[in-house]
Amino acid sequence: MLDAAPGAPGIDARWTSSAKNGIGTALSKHSRVWFTLSHGVLNEIYYPRVDSACTRDFGFVVTGNDGYFSEEKRDCETETRTIAPGIPAFSIINTARDGRYRIEKQVVTDPSRACVLQRVRFTALKGEVGDYRVTALLAPHLVNAGQLNSAWISEFEDKTVLFATGRSRYLALISDTPWRAVSAGFVGVSDGWRQLKQHGRIAEQYQRADDGNVALAGEFDFTGACQEATMAIGFGQTEFEAAAAAAGSLKDGFEKPQQHYVANWQAWQQKLVPLDRQEQAGVNAYRVSTAVLASHRAADRAGAVVASLSIPWGFSKGDDDLGGYHLVWPRDLVETAGGFLAAGDTEEAIAILDYLRHVQQPSGRWPQNLWLDGKPYWPGIQMDECAFPILLTDMLRRLGHLDGKAQKRFMPMVRNAANYILTNGPTTCEDRWEEDAGYSPFTLAVEIAALLAAADLLSLDGDDVAANHLRETADCWNEQIEQWTFAGEKNFCEALGISGHYVRIAPLGTTDEASASGNTEIRNQTPDRALLPTADVLSPDALALVRFGLRAPDDPHILDTIQAIDHSLRADLPQGSLWYRYTGDGYGEHEDGAPFDGTGKGRPWPLLAGERAHYELAAGRSEAAEALLGTLEKSAGYGGLFPEQVWDGPDLPEKELFLGRPSGSAMPLVWAHSEHIKLLRSLKDGAVFDMPPQGVERYIKNKTGSQLRIWRFNNRLSSIPVGKMLRLETETNAVVHWSADGWVSTSDTPMVPSGLGTYYADLPVQHEEPGKAIVFTFYWPDSGSWENTNFTVHVVDESGDSARIENGE
User: Fold this and answer.
1) pLDDT digit string, tens, across residues 607-640
2) β-pair partners for 773
3) What is the pTM of this model?
């Protein structure tokens, strides 16, 4: 064996396909390891946490003395199946397209150890086994990075071991059959793949490859009498711990860990609500969805669930994308809690709520996304993510899963979150697509529903003052949704015969009021497409106004918007109708199928079919909802996993893009599987499972309005409608010095506590005539100082939505 491999540090590291067709983990705290499958091979393996990818892929290359070279992930027809419905233990059959060989595998993780087990059998379909060489290739990418890894060959308990390390994590690959040849090398220069391509075998066996993009290779000693091997990839904090895990699993054999693995999953599945339907193509879609949710949970941090064990377009990305989708998004996490709850796993939903309680920031909000330990990853502020945990708390309370003691435990979280919404809403720095700031119908719906839910929780906690303040704020915001977000280009609306439509998002004006007549930035587009008139940009997000109980399904504004959405954003595909996220979206492959690289073209999202089905069910059209359920399920990839997006262009076989099938974005998307489970539950119940009741009662049934308009330093109104009181709200105690007649006469109104950390004063200007100007300033008694700035709010006569639209606003 040679010493060090040449060619350090190798070529730039890349991840692999995000289009998974299998994911799995043992439901055991002793086995902190997760695996993914794609193209018939193991892809990313995660250890010791579900947010830490440690490999790129692990597959086989078959060579022959006649110059034959075949890579199973590229040159085989693949069939991947679960060994039992909904159990993520997999059987894979890879058959060479040229008909020369077949590789059969079974994959599980060992419930007793941090180890992935793979049993493999090689069959020569042409010629004899001895005519071929079968070599395993493993690409370590320890702790989310392919660079600065090291690989080497050594021994443990008299077995040859292929080791790798990076960022204080170790892996060890051991086989129960002897290796004929082994090597460590640098990718693109001295790795096993390159040697096999050039020589048909591992011609140069290198012992080490340090500090680069490395790979390990091991050739099996297969013969006519020995065509099967079991391999174990063990993980640990040291090389010996990793090797001990792998060796221990091999000593137990394959059958024992597999039986234990399956039994754990069956025990969990048997506790769930039976929402099973007839299998399609051998797939129980419900069981697949529940398995996806459970497979994305952290083993050592109760309640933490990542968004996806994938990196969108991973084959085009390297170490600059550390997180991929294996991070926690609070919005996705609450949606996932709803999926667990709909499936009957109340314990997991409560654990998610408790996790959210622990990672809430002191301000009351949650990070845009975060690692399992609570460390923020991206810095954005999304107001819906601040509101969702309140809705989860209230849903658990309403369903009887939180007793009085449990409610007390979560009240500080609810109070802090409600205060953050109160002082920073209704606008958001980023919408739910993590892009634009402004007034988003989706975010507004979640915020208002959360304020009402928080009010109920505070009332039960004995704080009616704070509860009433939240309800008054919710009423005020709810009454202005149309003013902020209902618009429409005149010619477009006339052509469709509608009065207008909700826009995707209305940017802030100069005084923090909506400017539906302005422009909306499209973040993932080329400069010539990066700005569109706000009134032209639609999104299915508006359906959230129904989903969260603020508008009736037959509200004229909703009906007009649906007509506009279907005209502009619906994609009719072989499986049925799907929808795009919004007008002009650029988050998706380019027209030629090239991966998203900061710009592209947005593709249809199966998730949105689930949301539309919930709307149809709310509208009393269960048959339409059932049809959309079918469309959602038919949008799954092979094996039943839901993609983030599907391809909507002509087939591009060379790029594995086919009309109506998964694109190269994330798969599976846990959020989509959660929506699927909730839809199954909603159809069974005959009602939308997660619709909050407070808005339905208050705004749809009782038509509750508002007598207020609210001014804050971060929401400086320039006008209020005639007949409304003006509420001034600050985060510090003050006395308001104000006048309605140009300072001819003045009044001093002390502010009072809201019960939520803010202070407010209501100025009785509801009887003032249009054209009057309300002028005010603040005296701060705690510091004994004046604001030294006068603020003005004009009383205006609003003429309604129709006039606004006629004027192009």
Assistant:
1) 999 999 999 999 999 999 999 999 999 999 988 9
2) 794
3) 0.96
- Sign for the CA dihedral angle at 331, 334, 340, 344 comes to negative
The pLDDT of residue 800 is: 41
In this prediction, residues 535-548 reach a mean pLDDT of: 97
Q: Beta-carbon neighbour count of residue 463 at 10 Å?
A: 18
Are 127 and 65 spatial neighbours (Cβ–Cβ below 8 Å)?
no
Given strand 87-96, what is the order of strands in its sheet? 2-4, 206-212, 149-156, 159-166, 169-175, 228-236, 115-124, 101-109, 87-96, 76-84
Residue 668, φ and ψ in degrees, nearest 5: -85, 160
Under a CB-based contact definition with an 8 Å cutoff, are residues 740 and 795 in contact? no
Helices assigned H by DSSP within 313-463: 330-343, 346-359, 383-398, 404-424, 441-460
Residue type present at position 725: M
- Tokens of residue 648, six digits: 């909507």
SS3 label, residue 567: helix
Residues 721/709, Cβ–Cβ less than 8 Å: yes
Give per-residue pLDDT as tens, 403-448: 888 999 999 999 999 999 999 999 999 999 999 999 999 999 999 9
Taking 3-state DSSP, the helix, strand and coil percentages for the chain, each rounded to the nearest 5, stand at: 30, 25, 40
**124 is written with which tokens?**
């020569």
Task: Supply the DSSP string of 609-639, one letter for each residue.
Answer: HHHHHHHHHHTT-HHHHHHHHHHHHHTS-TT
Distance from C-alpha of 163 to C-alpha of 180, rounded to nearest angstrom: 17
